[in-house]
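Morning F.,

Quick status update on the modeling queue. The single chain you submitted on Monday has been processed. Sequence for confirmation:
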Amino acid sequence: MKTTRLIIVAVGGQGNLLASRILEEASLLAGVPVRLSEIHGMAQRGGVVESSLVFGDAESTIISEGDADALVGFEPSEILRALNKCNPGSIVVTNLSSLPPFTVSIGRGIYPDLDMLQNAIRARVKQLIAFNAVALAGEAGNVMSVNMVLLGALLCTGILPFSRENVVKAIETRTGMFASSNIRAFELGLAAARDR
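Structure tokens below.
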């Protein structure tokens, strides 16, 4: 079975860990072996959260520089931090609604220009899907469902080894009473990626 390597980067509180668990569950529902690891850092204080998922036959979740097949960013500047994991065949999906770190707020840092950021990403990878996922999450009825919007866009790329139905079932299982708004957000992400 072909191995697919995925990295998801976010800031604490954006739902990276839930998104990773949903993808893990969808993979298991499809009978695809999966390995998952997470870096939480100072997640509760807005720090970096990173998940690595390896689908298919693999013995490790370590994704070396240049080995990621896909990279998903819940916060656009986090993509830059992880871009070295990509290669010219990689696919990047990112939210364009920024959540600048506190160093920018206090004038000690500079947030990257989003147009320049997108150009830098496009120069390094095969495909970039970038849009305001926060707006679509709000349209779905829950601004906290940015993670589901981005999962929809990722699934649309065709890089994941399981179906839409597997993901929907995993969302239902993992999100309980919030399943309907999360599924709406997921579907909006699928549609947004198709339009790009």
